[in-house]
């Protein structure tokens, strides 16, 4: 599942546990490459694609929600009608309304994060900076969609983010500093089944670190986990392998778990790297949660080579929680959970390069594994997250009802 689906799987039962009645309204049916969001049996559901937009919206209106918790819709015209039903809070998982392509990255003369504020000037830079595709019709269509989304932000009672990086992004886009809030960290469950409980430690996440040089001189296993497309940077990770091999004097094996439109090109790059000897790349396709835990347990480093400024970077955070060091570029929300020299290593991102990533991988190997996060710490952080979220949702409903003076 993607990040939004994983988050909903966590947060819907958590809100129910606080006594809230929750329903699930979706714009589209399940994409063929993804399984449905697992929902508790007592959650009412409607899908506009299956039941028709008018009928599904009318059913939701009859359900009389106190507040809508929105996670990014495809069509602004649908979003506009949805926002007529009840007060709403948006959780911005991505650059919703702040970038034509949504990637917040330029690709010429080299790939690097973009800090530009969305507006008409983006149209002038779209082709020279290679911000997206080459179709002018697509550029204009996407610009209008993002402009409509940005305008619709004014109708939300609050805009929530999972990182300070994204909170700053929406403040810069005039979403209103008092309306934009970063939630306490969202920590997924299920990645720390081997967590080592600790007691009385103020930082229960990092204890019993192995020797710093433990990874050098033996065969090194790296892993990549995620969608294989250009902005996720798997090609850069593959290009970094020869330098990692030279620096560690060991064989290097990269396990790439995932799939996507750039997989075939990356497989060709991997074939060229294999010919250099003592290097290998294995493509597994998508893996389930059990296989992911096993991968985290056997690897020396998670390579998280995203070239775009990740809004949060959940996969990397999961690795850190499991005790696996992470090598990543210093951009986006990654810097908020990856502490350089402690949880792994950060490489320069302006611009990102294979050499810089290789150096970060080597430093991460030297850092070594750390103890998985304590289950007690994870549960406490999850409770803080859900409590803060419920507070924002309740406040949005109460302000509209005239019960709270903003």
Record the SSE blueprint.
Elements (H helix, E strand, L loop, with lengths): L2 H15 L5 E4 L17 E4 H4 L1 H11 L4 E3 L5 H7 L5 E4 L13 E2 L5 E2 L7 H6 L9 H17 L5 E4 L2 H9 L7 E3 L37 E6 L8 H15 L3 E6 L5 H12 L4 E7 L3 H10 L2 E4 L9 H8 L4 E4 L14 E4 L6 H14 L7 H26 L6
Parallel strand pairs: 1-2, 3-4, 4-7, 7-8, 9-10, 9-12, 10-11, 12-13, 13-14
Antiparallel strand pairs: 5-6
Helix pairs in contact: 8-9, 8-12
Please characterize this protein's 3D structure.
- By secondary structure, the protein is an alpha/beta fold.
- The protein has two domains: 3-104 and 133-188 and 381-400, Glycogen Phosphorylase B (Rossmann fold, 3-Layer(aba) Sandwich), CATH 3.40.50.2000; 220-367, Rossmann fold.
- Helix content is 38%, strand content 14%.
- The chain contains 13 helices and 14 strands.
- A six-stranded parallel β-sheet has the order 11-10-9-12-13-14, sandwiched between helices. Strands 3-4-7-8 form a four-stranded parallel β-sheet, sandwiched between helices. Strands 1-2 form a two-stranded parallel ribbon.
- α4 (76-82) links the parallel β3 (68-70) and β4.
- α8 crosses α12.
- The longest helix is centred in the last third of the chain and has 26 residues, at 375-400.
- It is globular.
- Mean pLDDT is 90; it is low at 193-216.
């Amino acid at each position: 599942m993607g990040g939004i689906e994983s988050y909903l799987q966590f947060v819907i039962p958590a809100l129910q546990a606080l006594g809230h009645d929750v329903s699930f309204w979706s714009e589209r049916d399940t994409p063929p490459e993804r399984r449905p969001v697992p929902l508790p049996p007592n959650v009412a559901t409607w899908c506009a694609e299956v039941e028709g937009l008018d009928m599904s919206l009318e059913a939701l209106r009859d359900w009389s929600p106190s507040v809508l918790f929105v996670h990014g819709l495809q069509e602004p015209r649908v979003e506009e009608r949805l926002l007529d039903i009840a007060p709403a809070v948006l959780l911005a998982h991505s650059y919703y309304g702040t970038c034509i392509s949504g990637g917040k990255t330029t690709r010429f003369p080299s790939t690097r994060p973009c800090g530009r504020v969305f507006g008409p000037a983006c149209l002038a830079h779209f082709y020279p900076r290679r911000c997206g595709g080459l179709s002018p019709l697509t550029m204009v269509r996407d610009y209008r969609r993002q402009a409509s989304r940005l305008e619709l932000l004014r109708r939300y009672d609050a805009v929530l983010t999972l990182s300070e990086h994204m909170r700053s992004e929406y403040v810069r886009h005039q979403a209103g500093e008092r309306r934009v809030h970063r939630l306490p960290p969202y920590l997924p469950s299920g990645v720390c089944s081997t967590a080592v409980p600790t007691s009385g430690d103020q930082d229960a996440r990092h204890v019993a670190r192995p020797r710093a040089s433990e990874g050098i001189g033996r065969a090194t296993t790296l892993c990549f986990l995620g969608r294989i497309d250009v902005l996720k940077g798997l090609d850069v990770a593959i290009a970094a392998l020869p330098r990692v091999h030279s620096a560690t004097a060991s064989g290097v094996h990269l396990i790439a778990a995932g799939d996507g439109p750039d997989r075939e090109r990356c497989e060709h790059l991997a074939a060229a790297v294999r010919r250099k000897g003592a290097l290998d790349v294995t493509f597994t396709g998508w893996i389930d949660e059990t296989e992911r835990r096993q991968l985290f347990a056997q690897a020396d480093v998670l390579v998280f080579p995203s070239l775009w400024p990740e809004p949060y970077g959940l996969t990397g955070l999961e690795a850190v929680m499991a005790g696996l060091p992470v090598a990543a570029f210093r951009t986006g929300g990654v810097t908020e959970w990856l502490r350089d020299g402690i949880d792994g290593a950060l490489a320069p991102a302006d611009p990102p390069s294979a050499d810089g990533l290789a150096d970060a991988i080597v430093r991460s190997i030297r850092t070594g594994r750390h103890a998985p996060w304590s289950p007690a710490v994870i549960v406490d952080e999850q409770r803080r997250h859900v409590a803060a979220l419920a507070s924002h949702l309740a406040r949005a409903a109460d302000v509209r009802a005239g019960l709270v003076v903003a």
